[in-house]
Amino acid sequence: MIDLRSDTVTQPTEAMLDAMQSATFGDDSRDGDATVMKLEALAAEKTGKEAGAFMPSGTMSNLVAMLAHGGRGGEVLVEEGSHTLNAELGGISGVAGLFYRGIPGDRGAMDLDLLREAVRPTTRNQMGTALIWMENTHNRAGGAVLPLTHMQAVCGLARENSVPVHLDGARIFNAAAALGTTAKNVAQYADSISFCVSKGLSAPVGSVLCGGAKFIERARAFRRMVGGNMRQAGPLAAAGIVALENMVERLPEDHRTAKRLAQGLHTIDASIVDPETVETNLVRASVRASGLKAADWSAEMKQRGVLVSPCATWDLRFVTHRHIGDAEVDHAISAFAETWKQFGTTDKHR
Ligand SMILES: Cc1ncc(COP(=O)(O)O)c(C=O)c1O
User: Fold this and answer.
1) Would you say the CB of residue 168 lies under 6 angstroms from ligand 1?
2) pTM given for the model
3) I need a labelling partner for 66 at 20 to 30 A (CA). Which of 28, 60, 225, 301 fits?
4) Backbone φ, ψ for residue 322 (5° rounding)
5) CA of 59 to the centre of ligand 1 (A)
């Protein structure tokens, strides 16, 4: 099976398995664990922040960031297609006790005029803005990269209004690679950042929340509250260290294979995807013109040895990663072309 459902399917490397075997087993919530502390320090250094806290998942890092920034009450301004609003099961209000306002955006970048209008103080009649949120790369926007000028403008607006900024940087290293810069340079426009080692970087589990030292201390307490205390997490952190040290540099290869995939799909039918929009390792493909819904497409592709996720009624999401080379991409394109041929192109669906 060629698994293009997500980059989370990546298996740990040999170097990770070796590092996991020789990791320490201190208790992260008592005296601390040396390997976890090393990962947290490395993550903080890479993102240009004072400190980091290791978390079991990106979802928990984001939730803890909301809790640690927000207090209870107040509004989070966030692009309306963001992962946190669409795929994190309402933790933002259900657990963090915050309101949110989805700001319309273009390729994941919030409309700056609408954002400016939405920022507001707390008065006797309204809860003010508690947090401004960005996501880079942007999952639902097909791995789109927020330009640094946009991030700078959002950050400037937030600073003018004394509102903190969080960056959901689950794939920050993909964003940095696409921008030709460092993660630190991207993260400078946020007070806190969460990123995952479990995605294209191939570690089995984990995310790190980074920010100011005081913020991270507060975040540790909230992590405990939501059940994320890590105990003997040394082996997981060891894999995370290898992820950060060895796996970042190869990410452009995933961007290249994603582009190749998009070009192949585009050749089958131009309505499927515009390869120009593919900036990182995600390809969002529209199957509307085939008349077959994405869930059925996913089942058809599985029959042909390719796993792919339906991500909307008419959209499939392909994600390239370390286990996907040109041969796998070409197989996926052939499987797609066969399926397209079978179901035909019916103009009424265009
Ligand atoms: C942008 C973004 N944020 C957060 C997450 C959540 O990460 P996790 O699956 O580790 O909870 C994801 C997962 O795909 C994501 O794409």
Assistant:
1) yes
2) 0.97
3) 28
4) -60, -25
5) 6
